[in-house]
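> @MW can you paste both from yesterday?
MW: sure, first one:
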Amino acid sequence: MTDAPRGKTAPAGPSTMRNVLLVVLSALLLAALAFLYLKTEAIDLREKNEVLALLRELKEIDSRWDVDVLRVRSELAPAARAPIDRAQRAAQALDRLARAAQSTDSGALDQGLADLRKAFAQKAELVEAFARESTAARRALQAGLGMTVEAAAWAREARRTGPGRKERAALAETAAKELDASLLRYHHLPDDAQRRAVDAAAAEFVAAAAVLPAVLGNVPGQIAAELQKLYQHRPVEEGLYAKLAFLTAGPRVDTLTGALNREVEQTLAEKEQFRVYLVYYALALLILIGYLGARLRATNIGLEQRVAERTRELSDALKQLKESEAQLIQSEKMSSLGQMVAGVAHEINTPLAYVKNSLGSVKASLPEIQSALGENDKLLALLSAENVDERQLNEQFARVRREAEQIRGHDVLQSLSDLVRDGLYGIDQIAELVTNLKDFSRLDRSKVASFNLNDGVASTLSLARHLLKGIEVRRQFGKIPDIKCSPSQVNQVLLNLVTNAAQAVEGSGGVITLTTRAVDSSHVAVDVADNGKGIPPEVLPKIFDPFFTTKGPGRGTGLGLSIAYKIVTEHGGKINVASRIGVGTKFTVTLPLALPAQPAAA
C-alpha cells in the first residue's frame, strides 16, 4: 500500500466505512431494544390501587352521607351531629386524589376529577342547607309538640280542680291532642292537605283555649308562631331532600372507577403484546451478539494488555508522587529549621556564656585553694616527723590558719557552689534545645508514640524562643490525656502555627495565647491565638492551599499550612481557623486520642 500524497487526506477505506456502519447499526439495535423494554416494563399498580382506594373511600363517604341525610329526615329531634361533617373528609379525599392524579398517567382520571369535585361540592352545599333547614324545622316541631303536651296537661288539671270548667277543659285537652297528632302527620308528609289539617286543629285549639284564658294564657299564640316556622322550613327541607336524591356524586365515582379499571386492563394487554415482540427480538440479538463476540474477543485481549500496562504506569507514578510528597514535607521542615538556626545559635550561646564565666571564676579560685592545700600538706609533714621544732610547728599552724581564714573570708566554697550550679543550668538549657531540635528534625515520621500536647507546646515554645522576643506568651494548659500520634509531625504543626502567630504580631504589644483542652472523651485540642492584624475574608478560604502565601518573596513557600492540614487530617483530626481584621487570628487543632484505622505513615 502506498502512502497518501503529502498535504492531502487519505480517503476512508472500506474497513473504516464498515466500522461506521457497524456502530450505527448497533445504536439502532440498542434503541429498538430500549423501546421494546420500556413498552414491556411493568406498570406501577400501587398508584392505581391508591387511586381506586381513594375512589372507594369517596363512594363510602357518599353512601354514609345519604344514610346521615335519611336518618336526620326520619328523626323528630334535631340531629346531635350534623351530616355536613362528611364534607371535610370528602374534600381531603379529593385533595389526595388530585395529588395522586399528578403522578398517574390516566386520561379518565384527569377528565373526571373536575366533575367529581364539582359534584361533591354541590352535595356538600345541599347537605349543609338541608341540615340547617332540618334543624330549624325540628326545633319548631319540638317546641310546638312540647306546648301542645303542656297545654293538654294544664287542661286535664283544670278538669280536676274546677268542676264548673270540666266540659270546656275536656274540649281544650282534646283539641291539644288533635293538634299534636296533626303536627306529627305534617312532619312526616308536609303537603297542602296535612297543612290544612294542622291549621284546622290549631283553630279548634285556639277556640277551646279562649274559654280558659287563665289556664292556657298565651300558649295558642306561641304555638301559632312555631307553626309559622315549621311551615317556613319543613317544605324547604323536603325540597332539598328531593334534590339530594338526584345528585350524581355516587354514580360519577362508579363511572370513574370503571374507566380506570378499563385503562389498566388495556395497558396490561398492550404490554403483553410487546413482551412477545421483545422475546423474538431478544433471540435475534443473541445470535448477533454471539457473532460479534467472536469478532471482539481478539480485540479485547489486546485492550486488556494495554490496560494492564497503563495500570502499572499509574501505580509507578503514584508511588513516585508519594515519595515526592514525603520529601516535600521533610524539605519544608528543614526549611523552617534552617530559618531558626541563627536564633537557636543565639539561644545556645547564652547558656554557653554561663558555663564559660563559671569555669573562669573556678579557675581564678583554684590557686588560692591550691596554696591552702600546700600549707596543709606541710603541716601534716611536720606532725609526722620526729623531734619537730615547736616554734616551726606553731608558725606552720599559723600559716594554715591564715590560709583557711582567707578562704572563708573570700567565701570561696559558696562561690564555687554557685558557679557549678550556674554551669549546670546552662548545660541543661543547651541539652533541652538539642533535644527539641532532634525531636523536630528526626526523619522517623511514621513512628507512633504516646504524646502529650502540653509537652509538645512547651517544646515548641522553647525552640521558637528567639522568635518570641518582645511578645507576651500566655500558656493556658488544661489537664489532658496523652494521644497516640507521630510526635515529630505534631511538633511540626505546632511550630508552624507558633511561627505564623509570631510573624503576625511583629512589634510591641503582641500577645500569643496557647490553650490546651479536652474536647470530649475521645478528642483533645490546642488553640493558637494572636492579636495580630488578622486575615482578610477573601484570603481566608485559600490559606490551606499549597504554595499560597501572603508573605513577601523569600519569606515563605506557601507549604507550611498546607502540610499542617495534611498532617492533622491523616491523624484523623481537623484544623480550623477564625480571624477578624484588626483583632487577630485563632487556629484550632483537634486530634483524637487514638489514630484511625490507617494512621499517618511516611
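MW: second:
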Amino acid sequence: MRRFLTASAVLLLFFLATSCLTLLAQSDGAGGAPADPSTVVVSPNASKEEVQQLRDEVAAQQQTIEELKAMVEKLATQQGSGDPRVVNAAIIQQQPADEEPLDVAQKSAAKPGEFPLTSGWNGEHFFIRSPDGTFQIQPYGYVNGDYRAYRGDGAPPNTFLIRRARFGFQGNYGSHFQFALLTDAGSTSGSIVRDVYINVKVIPEFQFQAGQFKEPFAQEIAVGATNLDFVERGLQSLLYPGASSAYRSPGATIHGDIAGSKIQYWVGAFNGHGYVIPATTSEPEVIGRLRFYPWRSNKDSVLQGLAFGGAIAHGRTRGLSNDVTFNATMPDNSYVFFPTTSPASPSYSSFVVNGPTERYNGEFTYLKGPFALRGEYDTLSYARDGVGSLEFGGLAFLSAPEIRAKGWNIAATYLLTGEKRPENGVPRVKHPWLGPEGPGGGPHGWGAWEVGIRYSGVQVKEPGFSCSTCFTPGSIPTFNDHTDQFTFGLNWYPNYWVRYGTEFNIDRLKQPSMIGAPPQNYFVVLQRLQFRF
C-alpha cells in the first residue's frame, strides 16, 4: 500500500510539473526548456509594466518547478534500495526477490501446474485440462438416426426416428475422482437426464459411485449404446432393471477390479423405478454382480478372451403405488407380446404387482481377434401379495401366483476387414473412408465391415385366479406368452466415429398380440446412422 501511495504521489507531481513546463513553453513560444527571466523576448509594443509582470510570472514558474523536482527526489530517496527510475513519465520498480512477477506468462512458467489450462484432442475426445492432468473435462455425445420399415398385420408405419441425441461431459478431479453428466435431447417423455454421477476411486479394488447411472445387472447393460453389435439389444433386455428408462436409476454402488481386472464386482442399491423417480418402498433394489476373466493375462492362451459371470437383484414393489409388470414392447417396436403399460397406448392392460421382485442373470463373452461370441440368460419374478382388491371389480385381498419370465440371447459377429473386436468399444478402423484417421488407422480405404447373427427370445407366464365367493365375483385370466427373434446384421464403420448399421429381423409372435394382431411373423428392417464425438 505504501508503494502504491508513493507511486501515485510521484505520478501526480510529474503531471503537475509537466503541465507547468507546457504552460511555460507556451508562454515563451518555444518547444524546449524555459529561458532565464532576464532573456525573455517580448513584443516591442509592450510597456515596461507588462514586461516586468511577465518576467515575475516566469520566475515564479521556475521556482515552482524547482520545488516539485526536490519533492520528487525526496520521495524517491525514501524508497530505499528499490532504485526507481523515471521512464516516459512512469515509475519502473525493481521486483523484490520474494515476490512473483505480475506477468501472466512468467507466472505460468514459475508454476506450470496452476495455469493456463491446456486443450486439445486425445485421439477420441476433445479435452480441457490442467498441464499436470489434475483436472480434466471432456465433452462427448452421440446421435442415432434411424429408419424403420415393417411388414405385418398391425405393425407400425415405416418411419424416420431420432433414437438418441445425447450430449454431456466427463472428466476427473485428480486421480481419485471421476464424474459424468449425460443428457438426451431426443427424449420424448420424462427427464432428459441420463447419467449424473461421481465415482471415487480409492484404489482399483475399491471404488464408490453415486448418482444416477445404469444398474449393473447384465453384460448388455454394460455395453454403451454406441458399441452395440446390433441396432437394438436382444429380447432378454426387456427383463433388465429399469428397461423402460434406459436401464438407469438413482442409487449408489461399490465396485472394483481385482487381480489386474481378472475379477470385477459390483454391489449396489437403487430406487429401481427409472429416471430421477423416488422409491415407492423403504426397501431399495439391491444388485450384486461378478464377472471373471481367468485367462486375461495369458497372451498365448486360446481362452484369453473368455469372460463369464452372473448377477442377482432383489427389490420390492408396492401395488398401492401403481407398480406394474415390465414393458413388453419389442425393442424394434413391432408389437406388444404381453399385457403391459405403454406410453403410446395407455389402454393396454397390465398386472398390478406387490411384494418381492427377484432377478437372476448368467452371461459369457468370448473374443478372439475379429470374432466375438456373446450369450446370456435372465429370469424375473414378481410377487402379487394381496392384489385382489386392486384388480378390476375388486377380488378381496387375495394373493395371486407369481408372474415369472425368462429371456435368452446368443449372438456372434465377425469383422471382415480384420480389425480386433473390443469387448465394449468401437473397432479401430484400419483404413478409414472419407474421414480422419482414428486410433490405429492407416491409409484410407473402405472402412471396416462387420457381419452378425443373433437369436433371442422371451417368455412370460402369468397364472390367473378367480374368486367366486367375493362380494363381487370375478377372475383374472391366465397368460403364457412367448416370442423370439432372428437377426441378421451388417455394420459399416467409415471411420472411428461414424457407423452405419442395418439389420433384418424376423419377429415371431406366438400368441395374439396385445394390439389385436393374430400370431404371425413380422419382418422388420432397421437402419441406423450413428456419429459420436
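> thanks! The chain is about 15% helix and 40% strand.
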